[in-house]
Amino acid sequence: MSEPTARLAARLAVDIGGTFTDVVLETPAGRATSKVLTTASPEEGVIAGIEDALATADLQAPSISLLIHGTTLATNAIIERKGAVTALITTEGFRDVLDIGYESRYDQYDVFLEKPKPLVPRRRRLVVPERTDIQGHVIQPLDEDAVAALVPELRELDVESIAVGFLHSYANPTHEQRVRDILAEAAPDLSVTLSSEACPEIREYERFTTATANAYVRPLMSDYLGRLRDRLDGMGFQCPVLLMTSGGGLTTLETARAFPIRLVESGPAGGAILAQHLAAEAGLDKVISFDMGGTTAKICLIENGQAEKAREFEVDRQARFRKGSGLPLRIPVIEMVEIGAGGGSIARVDALQRITVGPDSAGAEPGPAAYDRGGDRPTITDADIALGKIDPGRFAGGKVALKPELSVAALARDVAEPLGLEPAMAAYGVNEMIDETMANAARVHAVELGKVAAEHTLIAFGGAAPLHVGRVAEKLGIDRILVPQDAGVGSAVGFLRAPVAYEVVRSRNMRLGEFDAAAANDVVAAMRVEALEVVEAGAAGAELVEQRSAFMRYVGQGHEIVVPLPERLLTDDDGATLQEAFDTEYTRLFRRALPNAEVEVLTWALTVSTRAHAATSMPEPDHQPASAAIGTRGLFDAESGTTIEVPIYVREDLAPGMTLVGPALIVEVQTSTLVPATFNAHIGAGGNIVMGRKA
Fold first, then answer.
1. Cα angle vertex 249, ends 45, 339, to 5°?
2. What would the pLDDT profile of 614-646 be if each residue is shown by its tens digit?
3. DSSP letters of 364-382?
4. What is the reported pLDDT for 7?
5. Which residues lie across from 84 on neighbouring strands?
6. Between these two residues, 148 and 694, which has the higher pLDDT value?
7. In this structure, CATH architecture of domain 79-222
8. What is the SS3 assignment for 345?
9. Fewer CB within a 10 Å sphere, N or C end of the chain?
10. pLDDT at site 320
11. 663 preceded by cis ω (within 30°)?
12. Rounded CA gap, 492 and 462, in Å?
């Protein structure tokens, strides 16, 4: 391939996880991948991975036409409370909104219940006189002198970042904008986030938590993205840099620096997009994506080619699986469940003599015991090594040297000896606990959405998922598993399938009985201008598509449903059109509509995006026996309590159509796949490993 052709087609994707940083370089000639340990200064790991991928593909930085980046840095900063010192300036009388929350308890019978702690403590919540009503009319003008008087107090509190959240500012943001102007003049070094920009929606608690979370991570993320851009420029990169968002789209680096809260689930979103693409290629209507990396596991249901979407996401949950136990963020997200179950999750025996795993992780530093980097506590990776699932010589492409004896020693000390077990059985116990946790998470998530997990195909990717997916499938009663090519860097591959997209949401209450088409069209037009500005900056000249929707409810209800809107100018007669669309959607969800009940629009939403990459289905190849195994490996069998020898296959040696019988190990550079004894496997048309349960 000539250098000009490579430049037009070569694209890079980078995914920073809590343990590993994954890089994928894709050209018409093929794909180069790299997996390196995440570094304390994240850009160092990114640059190391990029240099490795470029060297493998024999390309230079100027040959890259696009770089796409996703990261969990914002999420980790919130969970670990490592963000900026943040203050909240709010309306007088509403200082304690962050503490009051929903005024409900996620577990009303737990007398020791801990509510999520606000990112901004009460002493750094400051108030000023001002008031706007629900229609945006000013009731009390902003006291500008009171705002200026806050600056010395902000200095005394060593504040680095400020969130401004006033009551009903979504309807009229002028007071918040004036505060930003005053602070920009008096304290230009402070980062300022306005709730009317970060989350211009009704409901002050969610709006304030979203704004404070954005302010909390903004200095960290802005500095990191700035340093990364400088390093890339220094390497000779001349291409656009786009960031993966939680909703499954791509946005510009400048927008990401201003609103990093939209990146909290960017890595997992890439995995969901990959699963959507694979499901379309394989003609699968019902799939569950299973992404297990070094720190967390993510599970997402995808039906009819689309992942479930949501407008709210909870981060830092105090109780696993308990809605309401975390900090609510009002951002567009792909709906999934995420648990602290990754290769680095730490295992221990609790006071009741039970094996427990996670949610804390050894991460990349010091890492699992086998890494020999100072970590001495047993992790899931250590258990996998002790059971024989991982070939130490091939782990992470040979870039991380493992010492299996350290895994065995850590498991013996912390798990086996307290329970009177052999180290191998202790390692099996660790695996069983984490596999059951992940299976239960998928089971609960499916039930919450009214689905049956056993009816789905599992698509597994991430460094650890292919090792555990077989047992998770057994527990869920799932008969079919798909492991894609380059599964170890699956989320980064998914980035390359994502459209450039941006969603804008505005709250503007309107009852259908008093439908005002002119006001609705004004809201939609303003949203389109904002969305186009972002999308065209990242995809100039591309064909764009637009989606409009409204969040509607019966008057008096507490929650809304999403109703599609016509993609044209609305007229006053469209009140009846929206009523009909609402009745149809409400009946689909709840089996009946309520006659004569008044309906209202609470919030309007608009998404502008480039067209998504179309998936091409391929015919199933003829089956034939797999090429010879390269050897065998001892794998602990819990049923017999002994070690059995299983064949090892190299994935690169397996051509489409080749079949093999479980148990077996299929090894590749970034991960390994365990085919359990209850499954057989073959290589599908797209090079994916397809496992089917034995009769």
1. 65
2. 666 667 777 888 877 888 888 888 888 888 999
3. TTT--GGG-SS--S-BHHH
4. 42
5. none
6. 148
7. 3-Layer(aba) Sandwich (3.40)
8. strand
9. C
10. 60
11. yes
12. 10
CA 680 to chain centre: 31
Q: What are the residues facing 608 on neighbouring strands?
A: 502, 546
**Where exactly does CATH 3.30.420.40 map onto the chain?**
3-78+223-263
- Taking alpha carbons only, the member of 587, 597, 15 closest to residue 271 is 15
DSSP of 611-649: PPPPP---PPPPPEEPPPPSEEEEEEETTTTEEEEEEEE
| Residue 420: pLDDT over 80 | yes
Task: Tell me which DSSP letter residue 416 carries.
Answer: I
Percentage of the chain modeled with pLDDT above 90: 45
- pLDDT reported for residue 319: 65
**Model confidence at 536: pLDDT above 60:** yes
Confidence of residue 4 (pLDDT cuts 50, 70, 90): very low
Our measurement of the distance from residue 655's CA atom to the centroid of its chain's CA atoms, rounded to an integer in Å, reads 32
Which residues does 153 contact at the CB level (< 8 Å), separation at least 6? 126
Tokens 């999750």 belong to residue? 345
Range among 209-223, 315-329, 411-425, 612-626 rated most confident: 209-223
Pairing mode, strands 672-675 and 664-667: antiparallel
Residue 480 CB coordination number (10 Å): 17
510 has which bridge partners?
601
Average pLDDT (637-661) is: 88
> H-type helices in 159-265, by residue range?
174-186, 195-198, 204-235, 253-258
Distance between CA atoms of residues 691 and 678, nearest Å: 10
**Sign (positive/negative) of CA torsion 38, 39, 45, 46?**
positive
Give whole-number Cα distances, 517 to 133, 379, 514, 575, in Å: 22, 59, 10, 8
Whole-number Å distance between alpha carbons of 313 and 208: 14
Every domain of the chain with CATH number 3.40.1360 lies at 79-222
3-state secondary structure of 257: helix
The residue type at 624:
Q
Distance of CA 58 to the CA centre of its chain: 31
> Euclidean distance between the first and final Cα of the chain, in Å?
47
Residue 354: exposure state from Cβ atoms within 10 A (0-12, 13-18, ≥19): exposed
List, edge to edge, every strand of the sheet that includes 20-27: 30-37, 20-27, 11-16, 66-71, 241-244, 250-252
Confidence of residue 196 (pLDDT cuts 50, 70, 90): very high
pLDDT: which is higher, 110 or 368: 368
Average pLDDT along the chain: 88
How many CA atoms are closer than 13 Å to the CA of 368, on its beta-carbon side?
34
**418-457 burial, b for 16+ CB within 10 Å, e for fewer?**
eeebebbbbbbbbbbbbbebbbbbbbebbeeeebebeebb
Distance CA 18, CA 262 (A): 18
User: What CATH number is given for 3-78+223-263 in this structure?
Assistant: 3.30.420.40
Look-up of token digits 């929707």: 549
pLDDT above 60 for 1: no
Return the DSSP state at 264.
Answer: T
User: pLDDT tens digits, residue range 314-352?
Assistant: 877 666 656 777 888 888 888 888 777 778 888 888 888
Q: What is the C-alpha separation between 288 and 456, in angstroms, rounded?
A: 6
**What is the pLDDT at residue 598?**
93
pLDDT of residue 392: 81
How many Å is the Cα radius of gyration of the chain? 26
**531 vs 371: CA distance, rounded Å:** 45
CA-to-CA dists, residue 129 to 92, 169, 175, angstroms: 5, 14, 11
